Amino acid sequence: MVDGRILEISGLRSGYGKMEILHGIDLDVNEGEIVAVLGPNGAGKTTLLNTIFGLTTIHAGEIRFRGQSIVGLKPYRIVRLGLGYAPQLNNVFPNMTVLENLQMGAYLRGSDPDVEKDIEEVFQLFPEIARRKHQKARTLSGGERQMLAVARALMSRPKILLLDEPTTGLAPKAASILMKKIAEIRDKGVTILVVEQNVHKALEVADRAYVLVSGRIVREAEPKTLLEEGVEKLFFQTT
């Protein structure tokens, strides 16, 4: 790592097949931070996380995790290195119970005896889903399902957690609760990279933020600065 950076992205161009979505992204995340990536629909935010996690075509650039290049690695190898990912869609197994979802999150840990202890720690962090641990995931509310998605990603013991639009579709109260939980996760030692459309909720917990518009980073600053500037105005900036 360089100067405490856990994730370094430089000159990244990626997309799906020949279609390029991201055009020269430079971004870094320091250990112990919450870094938010903000932007309008279609900006490339999900593509950015998918690219880090090995799910897109990389045309150019570099991604380094803890000093090691992860370009070209399969997602399961990326998880083993210490990256966790809670995607926006299809992020839980609906026909499995809450407990079974968490056990699946620890699948790559094999017979690790600490799995049960980690499940209990996750339930302490998310008592809302602990009360429903024997219920099928499909019976959960939207907020509970998002909590389960984050909790399942934590079961791989990630050093950095990637979160894709965790508050999408949630009522304001549920969104606030979830963002507070995300701050608690950071305080427990997990670095977080979160992409969000809910600008103000994200900036309440972020240490730094990037604004992504049309596949390009147009601004990087601390939350206070972005709020003073009127961050949503940047969403309409031409690049």
Explain what you see.
- The chain has 239 residues and is an alpha/beta fold.
- It has a single domain (5-236), classed as P-loop containing nucleotide triphosphate hydrolases (Rossmann fold, 3-Layer(aba) Sandwich), CATH 3.40.50.300.
- It has helices at residues 45-52, 75-81, 98-105, 115-125, 127-130, 142-154, 172-187, 199-205, 223-229; strands at residues 5-16, 19-30, 34-38, 57-65, 68-69, 83-86, 160-164, 191-196, 208-213, 216-221.
- The strands form 2 sheets. A 6-stranded mixed beta sheet has the order 6-7-8-3-9-10, sandwiched between helices. It has a 4-stranded antiparallel beta sheet with strand order 2-1-4-5, covered by helices on one side.
- Strand 9 and strand 10 form a beta hairpin.
- The relative contact order is 0.18.
Mean pLDDT: 94
Q: How many individual domains?
A: 1
Oligomer state equals single chain
Number of strands: 10
Shape: globular
Instruction: Please tally the helical runs, counting DSSP H or I stretches of 4 or more residues.
Output: 9
Order of helices and strands: EEEHEEHEHHHHEHEHEEH
Task: Report the C-alpha radius of gyration, rounded.
Answer: 17 Å
The CATH topology label is Rossmann fold
The largest sheet has its strands arranged as 6-7-8-3-9-10
Helix percent band? 25-40%
- Which segments are poorly predicted (pLDDT under 50) over 5 or more consecutive residues? none
Query: What structural class do the secondary elements suggest?
Result: alpha/beta
